[in-house]
Specification:
Layout lengths: L1 E7 L1 H5 L3 H11 L2 E8 L3 H7 L9 H8 L4 E8 L2 H9 L12 H5 L8 E3 L3 H11 L17
Antiparallel strand pairs: 1-3, 1-4, 2-3
Length: 147
């Protein structure tokens, strides 16, 4: 089983769509193994977006992500990174297809509502930024539904 990192940005709370987004991941068969709501400080946001530090939109990105609480979580499942990326849709909102999270809910690319790791290496790096090992629960699903 693979793991991936997902972050719901401040707009999801403001728009009251957190439950809808979680239900899409759960209906796909992905398992939530860690979950927290936090307000990011500038240091954590800067660490998370390190790869974008020299890009024009970096400041706006950090300002947006620190503007309110985010929900960070780890999903586990077969091909978790690619499965989640398909569910959330294209980063460019104008290219996100209807039926994807971004296609259905995102308004602009700059004020995107969701982040998901783009590779297993990124997933591990982001998991390490947001979660301590004792915050990750490798729980057994005794009522397993076959998807």
């Amino acid at each position: 089983m693979d793991r991936t990192f997902v972050m719901l940005k401040p707009g999801t709370l403001h728009r009251r769509i957190v439950g809808e987004i979680f239900s899409r991941f759960e209906r796909k068969g992905l398992k939530i193994i860690a979950l927290k709501m936090v307000r990011l400080d500038n240091q954590t946001a800067s660490t998370h977006y390190e790869e974008h530090r020299n890009k024009d939109f970096y400041g706006e990105l950090v300002n947006h992500i620190t503007s309110g609480p985010i929900i960070a979580f780890i999903l586990e499942g077969a091909d978790a990174v690619s499965s989640v990326r398909r569910l959330i849709g294209s980063t460019k909102v104008q290219e996100a297809q209807a039926g994807t999270i971004r296609g259905d809910f995102a308004y602009t690319t700059q004020l995107n509502i969701i982040h998901a790791s783009d590779s297993p290496a990124s997933a591990q790096r982001e998991i390490d930024i947001f979660f301590r090992p004792d915050e990750i629960y490798d729980w057994e699903d005794n009522n397993r539904v076959w998807f």
